[in-house]
Every structure is written in structure tokens, then in C-alpha cells.
Amino acid sequence: MPELPEVQTVVDTLRPRVVGRRITKVHLGRHDILTPSDVDLEQVLTGRTIRDVSRRGKRILFLLDNAERFYIHLGMTGHLSVESRSAALAPHTHLQLHLEARGAPELRFVDPRRFGGIWWLGNSDDEDDDLGPEPLRLRPAQLRRLLSKTKRPIKSALLDQTVVAGLGNIYADESLFAAGIHPLTPTNLLKQDQVSRLSRAIKTTLRRALRHRGSTLRNYRDANGDTGNFQKLHRVYGREGEPCRKCRSPVQKIVLGGRSTHFCPSCQSR
DNA sequence: GTCCATGTTCTTTA
DNA sequence: CTAAAGAACATGGA
Fold first, then answer.
1. A35 lies in which domain range?
2. Is A129 within a domain?
């Protein structure tokens, strides 16, 4: 469900409802959703106040008042919400954090497919050692350097979180369309001006998606339970056979690295 | 029953 | 050795 625009929207809707609130009770529904799995989450979280919520790549970082931290990754179907403790519990609710506030709210983490999870960091500061730069702060020279190392198709490189952190299947396809680059283009064959265009295209695509609060394809909701609207503005993703919004040629869908990949064969020639 | 899905990681193949 | 392809994870909707 979540790529950078969706994760950022979750963070933005979560922050005003949890920052400054004390955690009074913790319920972890299942242990295999937590890494490391032997952390006593109830012990480390109960009584702490949430000082901040932020995003790094697709990770949602929680900072506590004692400077310890953890992050939640939504995987494909993860969902965070703040609601009343008396509200019906959705199936596959894996974590509940009671918050000290009017209306007796709790933070809930639901994830049917369990590709997401909770990572306890404690005081360590290596939460993003394995992630590439933030795409919204990417400089073209930096992207050129990251891409020069490999021959694989550019679409696959964009999905690699160690190259750029936050793009997923939707925004990789949309960014390549915006840059006019064919998804199968070997990364090391991209010209300098193509990489510059791609760098700009990634930013404009993500900013547009952020303005529209992300894409809801199936079940994505922000922390308030609201859907995104950007799916209506997708130019290629999910539009196989439909006319390209620029040139009217039918949008093509191929499988690349096991992921569906959408592009306009005429606007994104090889 | 089949296929597909916004993600990541491990294994197999070339 | 490396890179790319494929499978796996688990669930639900079309």
C-alpha cells in the first residue's frame, strides 16, 4: 500500500494525534511482527511519551522521550490509525498503544499480509544505514553516481531502496514516464541529461502525489482513515491498454523483475 | 479454483 | 564472482 507519498501522509496525519502523548498500555498481538523478536515491547514502551514521528524512506520512525526509537514499516497492507479504544478491533490488529488523552485513544497497527512490521532500535543510530538518499533531496550528480554502478534496467534500480529510498512500483513507473525513459533502459546507458530529467521527474511526481495525499488503489488509508486521490492522476500505472495521456498510444504493461511495469512505448522509446 | 496485489529478502540461474 | 530472475512470505479481492 505505501510508497513515500502515502507513508508521508500517514506520518503527517499521525503526528498531531500522538506526539506529546504518554503510552499507558501496550498490547502486542503477535511476536513475529517485531524485530528483534525478543524485545519486551511492553516494558520499553509503557510510561514513555512519544516525542516525534517522522519518515525515512518508507519507514515511520517514532522517537520517545528517553531518546529511544522504533520504526514501523507498512509493507504492502499495513495500516496505522488512532481511534477510540472502544472502536471495533479490525482483524489482523498486531499492536495497540493506549495513549493518555481525552477520548481514550489508541494507536493501532493492522497488517493482514504481515509484510510490514515493527523494528525496535533503542538508542542505536543505524536505522537507515541500508537506505539510499531521500528522493526529494536527491541531487542529479548523486543519482548519476548511484546509477553508474549497474547495468540493470532503470526500473529495477529505482525500486532498490539502497539506491533511492521511498519509490515503489507506482512512482517508479510514473517517474519514468515523466522523464520519457523506457523502463528497460540499462542504467549505465542513461545519458547525463536523462539522469537530470529523471531526478527532476522523481521530485515532481512525488510532490504531485503528496499534494493529492497519495494513491489509494485498494485499501490504503491515512491515520485518519481517509483515502488518497492521486490514483486518478496516474499517467501509466494501472492503465494498460488505455490511451497515453500525452500521445494517445495504448499504455503497455510488461513484467520486469517480477513486478508489473507500465509505460508508453511511444513517449518512452528505447 | 485462478490470478493479482502499493514490499522485501532469500535462493536459484545464467 | 556478479547480476538478474524467480520464489517466498500471507491474505484477500476480483
1. 4-122
2. no
Sheet of A93-99, strands arranged across: A23-28, A93-99, A105-110, A79-84
Chain A 166-225, CB < 7 Å to strand C: 186, 218
pTM strictly above 0.85: yes
Protein CA A131 to sugar C1' B13 (Å): 27
Last residue of a domain, one of A71, A89, A122: A122
Catalytic residues of A: 2-3, 58, 259
Of the three residues A91, A122, A153, the one that is the final residue of a domain is: A122
A1 pLDDT more than 70: no
- Model pLDDT for residues A228-249, shown as the tens digit of each residue: 999 999 999 999 999 999 999 9
**Residues A35 and A97 placed together within one structural domain of the fold:** yes
Q: For residue A38, what are the contacts with CB-CB under 8 A and spacing of at least 6? A: none
- Of A80, A25, A85, nearest to A55 by C-alpha is A80
